[in-house]
Amino acid sequence: MAASFRPRILAMQFLAAIAFISGIIRSSADDPPLTLDYYASSCPTVLEIIREEMGREVLSDQRNAALVLRLHFHDCFVQGCDGSVLLDDTVTLRGEKTASPNINSLKGFEIIDRIKSKVESACPELDAVLLVGGPYWDVPVGRKDSRSASYDLANTNIPTPNQGLISIIYKFFYLGLSVTDTCTCKPLGAHTIGVARCENFRTRIYGDYELTSGGSPLSEVHLSQLKSTCPAAGGGDNNIAPLDYETPYTFDNSYYHLLLNGEGLLNSDQELYSSLLALQTRKLVEQYALDPAAFFQQFSISMIKMGNLTNPDSFVDGEVRKSCRFINA
Ligand code: HEM
Question: Does one domain contain both 52 and 137?
Answer without folding.
Answer: yes
